[in-house]
């Protein structure tokens, strides 16, 4: 089954960042709904379709922070890439860390892209603009079985 | 020998004279008789002479033997002579005092009395190698009469007496040497343990520093994003509700947050330089500069800076990423520190002196007074007010630290009002 869903899954525990990212999406006029989850364990439950997320729509893109409560972004990524077809889901890491060990590990685990959160809001808007153009408009999606 | 010949000849002359006298006395005797007597006489003389010589030589030999025996006995080295079965034939005084036996006890002693039980096989194999090689030196634990063991070095050689092979050995007590060696080993062990402990401590300190740097990069920047983002949101969404002072305050929050972010990034870059190990590789300065120009391209365009590069630039031994950081700092300084309204002009060139490459970044900017030429390379040193020339005071500290880590140097030549010439120096490629 091809996911027709246009939702974006944002895994982020910092509420300020959630607010600012949502605001940046508004500024760029992205209509795709944003689903926000605050820790790595919830992210896995959601993607796996476990309670309470059995009826969840599959996202077309995951924006994943690395430093998360319960399970880190690296762990989420590692779990995801071991799933049957779910592993095809594009994941863009969006984090504050620019440490090369974090970057390398994310790519080793199968991240599709790695972005460092800019401090200035203008730079965030620019980043979201490019993200929209590339991942939401240009990029072709793979088939993902819903289950 | 010569003396003895002279003596013999003289003696023969005497005999000749005696014979002539006798001949005169015995003229009446027959020639045959005379000849016989002559032969007898001669025999007697010759015999006497040989005996005399032998006696003389014997006493000389005796004298010599005594001399050598005294030497053997009074030697400061402990010496023994034994046959190939290990039976002791002779020893000197020093050896006796070394072992604590008297002469007869020593001669009667068996090998197991003198060599520690665990060392007997070692001694036997040393004897075997002595037979095949003629001489050997080995270390062995020996035992005194009172049972006390001591380490010794034995240098043994072999020679023949009356066609029979005997072993002559010199025994040295090496307790002192062993003790010194043991002491040295102990010190070395102690030192190794100490170094290992310090290394552990440093490693864990380094790990702590790394996790500190991580939390700085991650956790400290999050509140900055919030400050900057929401102050911006105020300015945009509530612009009509804020008067000019309110807007000014919000803008100040934005710029302070931005400045602190740059400061954190610079500090992180500086601390990363201090702790990461750099392995110098061959690096093309042309490609480094290409990357730097690309990074700074929007700034360069914005202020319409003129940058001239005298290509080709040589290749050096360094670290690519660090060099990009270093040159990026130098070039952004060069285009920043100009009189307001003046278009920056920068010239970049390299020269080779004594197998070292010196890369110059020369600007026509405001220049630096000589008394500050050293200070500007220290961290947090700033010469200009934040309003005119914003910055963190970390850039040139990164340049200096980066060059140090790559085994190079950095410096400046400058006159106020006439621009600055910053240089970095590195080893040439392949040297």
Explain what this protein looks like in three dimensions.
The complex is a heterodimer of chains A (147) and B (431). Chain A is α/β, with parallel strands linked by helices. Chain A has one domain (8-138): 3-Layer(aba) Sandwich (Rossmann fold), CATH 3.40.50. Helices cover 39% and strands 14% of the residues of chain A. Chain A has helices spanning 15-28, 40-48, 73-80, 100-108, 121-138; strands at residues 8-11, 34-37, 61-64, 91-95, 113-116. In chain A, helix 1 (15-28) crosses helix 5. Chain A is globular. Chain B has twelve helices and twelve strands. A five-stranded antiparallel β-sheet of chain B has the order 2-1-5-4-3, sandwiched between helices. In chain B, helix 7 (175-237) packs antiparallel against helix 8 and helix 8 packs parallel to helix 12. Residues 1-7 of chain B have low confidence and may be disordered. Chains A and B meet through helix 1 and helix 5 of A and helix 7 and helix 8 of B.
How many beta strands in the DSSP annotation of chain A? 5
Number of separate structural domains of chain A:
1
The percent range for strand residues of chain A is 5-15%
Specify the oligomeric state.
Answer: heterodimer
Number of helices of chain B: 12
Outline the low-pLDDT stretches of chain A: none
* The CATH C-level class name of the largest domain in chain B: Alpha Beta
CATH architecture group name of the largest domain in chain B: 2-Layer Sandwich
Poorly predicted runs of chain B are 1-7
Question: What overall geometry of chain B do the principal axes of the alpha carbons give?
Answer: elongated
Radius of gyration of chain A, in angstroms, nearest whole number: 14 Å
- How many domains, in number, for the residues of chain B? 4
SS class of chain A: alpha/beta
Percent of residues in helices of chain A comes to 25-40%
CATH topology of chain A: Rossmann fold
Euclidean distance between termini CA atoms of chain A = 10 Å
What's the mean pLDDT score of chain A? 91
């Amino acid at each position: 089954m091809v996911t027709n869903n246009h939702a974006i899954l944002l895994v982020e525990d910092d509420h300020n960042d959630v607010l600012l990212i949502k605001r940046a999406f508004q500024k760029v006029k992205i209509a795709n709904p944003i689903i926000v989850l605050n820790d790595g364990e919830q992210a896995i439950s959601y993607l796996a379709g476990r309670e309470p997320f059995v009826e969840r729509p599959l996202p077309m893109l995951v924006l994943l922070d690395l430093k998360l409560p319960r399970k880190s972004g690296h762990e989420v990524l590692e779990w995801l890439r071991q799933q049957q077809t779910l592993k095809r889901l594009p994941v863009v890491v969006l984090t504050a860390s620019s440490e090369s060990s974090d970057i390398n590990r994310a790519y080793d685990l199968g991240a599709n892209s790695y972005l460092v959160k800019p401090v200035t809001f203008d730079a965030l808007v620019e980043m979201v603009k490019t993200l929209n153009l590339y991942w939401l408009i240009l990029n072709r999606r793979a088939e993902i079985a819903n289950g | 020998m010569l003396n003895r010949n002279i003596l013999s000849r003289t003696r023969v002359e005497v005999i000749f004279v005696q014979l002539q006298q006798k001949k005169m006395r015995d003229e009446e005797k027959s020639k045959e008789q005379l000849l016989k007597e002559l032969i007898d006489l001669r025999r007697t003389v010759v015999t006497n002479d040989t005996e005399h010589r032998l006696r003389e030589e014997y006493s000389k030999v005796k004298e010599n033997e005594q001399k050598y025996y005294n030497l053997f006995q009074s030697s400061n080295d402990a010496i023994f002579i034994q046959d190939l079965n290990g039976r002791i034939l002779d020893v000197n005084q020093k050896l006796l005092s070394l072992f604590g036996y008297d002469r007869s006890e020593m001669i009667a002693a068996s090998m197991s009395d003198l060599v520690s039980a665990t060392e007997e096989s070692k001694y036997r194999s040393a004897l075997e190698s002595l037979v095949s090689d003629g001489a050997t030196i080995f270390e062995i634990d020996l035992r005194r009469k009172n049972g006390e063991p001591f380490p010794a070095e034995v240098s043994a050689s072999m020679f023949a007496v009356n066609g029979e092979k005997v072993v002559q050995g010199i025994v040295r007590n090496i307790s002192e040497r062993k003790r010194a060696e043991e002491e040295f080993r102990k010190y070395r062990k102690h030192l190794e343990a100490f170094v290992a402990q310090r290394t552990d401590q440093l490693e864990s300190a380094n790990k702590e520093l790394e996790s500190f740097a991580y939390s700085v990069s991650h956790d400290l920047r999050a509140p900055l994003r919030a400050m900057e983002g929401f102050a911006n949101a105020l300015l945009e969404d509530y612009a009509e509700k804020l008067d000019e002072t309110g807007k000014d305050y919000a803008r100040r929050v934005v710029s302070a947050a931005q400045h602190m972010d740059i400061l954190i990034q610079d500090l992180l870059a500086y601390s990363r330089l201090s702790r990461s190990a750099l392995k110098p590789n061959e690096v093309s300065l042309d490609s480094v500069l290409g990357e730097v120009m690309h990074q700074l391209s929007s700034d360069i365009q914005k202020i319409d800076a003129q940058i001239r590069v005298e290509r080709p630039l040589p290749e050096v031994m360094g670290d690519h990423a660090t060099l990009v950081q270093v040159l990026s700092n130098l070039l952004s300084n060069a285009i920043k520190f100009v009189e307001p309204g003046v278009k920056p002009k920068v010239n970049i060139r390299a020269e080779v002196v004594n197998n070292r490459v010196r890369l110059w970044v020369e600007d026509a900017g405001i220049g630096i007074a000589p008394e500050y030429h050293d200070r500007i390379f220290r961290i947090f040193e700033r010469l200009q007010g934040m309003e005119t020339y914003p910055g963190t005071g970390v850039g040139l500290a990164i340049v200096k630290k980066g060059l140090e880590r790559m085994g190079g140097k950095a410096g400046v030549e400058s006159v106020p009002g006439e621009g600055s010439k910053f240089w970095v120096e590195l080893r040439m490629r392949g040297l």
